[in-house]
Amino acid sequence: MKRSDLLVFNSKGIYCPRAKVYLDPWRPVNHAIITHGHSDHARFGHKNYLTHHSNIPILKHRLGDIPVQGVAWNEPFQINGVTFSLHPAGHIIGSSQVRVEYQEEVWVFTGDYKDEDDGVAVPYESVKCHTMITECTFGIPAFKWKPQQEVFKEINQWWKENKEEGKTSVLFGYSLGKAQRILKYLEPSIGTIFTHGAIENMTEVLRPQLALPPTQLITRETKGKEIQGGIVVAPPSAHGSPWMRKLVPFETGTCSGWMAFRGARRRRATDKGFVISDHCDWQGLLKSIKASEAERVICTHGYTDIFSKYLRELGYDASVENTDYEGEKDEATTSTEKETV
């Protein structure tokens, strides 16, 4: 079969010329298929949005009353003769891969994804294709995740020890995806779980779809004594802000794949680092690509040059394309939270 460019990269995003539709475009377009709700993939200004049903509440919460259509997993739909379908990406709740087929040629755009079943997102589904567009946020061998049950055991033990010392535990994670994953595995028997407003607002949107423990929002009226000994889940943007003052005395922890790097905790000025990511590690990326049976692999955002070079050594037709996607940011954000994982 002669391979064509079913999807192309241009200044607005990943485009299917035959269907006249974009996948996760970063500039306003007429028709957009959106893989998930993080702000680097779901942007304001498109005339029409299409996404998985479970992602609609997230998009509406973040983007307002947009014109959006929902589809189910593995539900084929046609646009100008091109067949599309959405498949679980395992990244965060509602996250999809987009399968694109025309005249027996199949491409898959993974968006952001992870192969570990976190018990929150619908688990990643391997989709056979000829060409796979993959992120490589953590595309070097240094990244190897421990099973999440081990990490959450460490988090709960850290909280318990801090409580015994009369300290509040403050855990940083992005408000969409990471925060709900943290909340699901915190142990309420240790104490009260408190939340920053950004975390609470997004969690309330998602509670109808998830079983999560009760949380208590920190407001202006909340007293420091009420919080002492509890655990607070907050976005990275809260770190070092005046909002933290009423939490004293506290210990801080950051949940991120970057915590696997020496020095990352110091750069973020955090007391403890927990290696939790909503992206694949090195082996997860390689395993997913192999399972897809793709011959051609296009690498976007992350360690693109290193990862694509390694894939070529394995015999893949691998290349790099630039996008506006960010993956999981290496540095904590400041005044405006970039919720990319």
TrEMBL record:
GO MF annotations, alphabetized: exonuclease activity; ligase activity
EC number: 3.1.-.-
Annotated stretches, region: Disordered: 322-341
Enzyme class (EC, first level): hydrolase
Protein name: Ligase-associated DNA damage response exonuclease
UniProt KW keywords: Exonuclease, Hydrolase, Ligase, Nuclease
Entry keyword annotation includes rRNA processing: no
Ranges of compositional bias, category Basic and acidic residues: 330-341
Domain of life: Bacteria
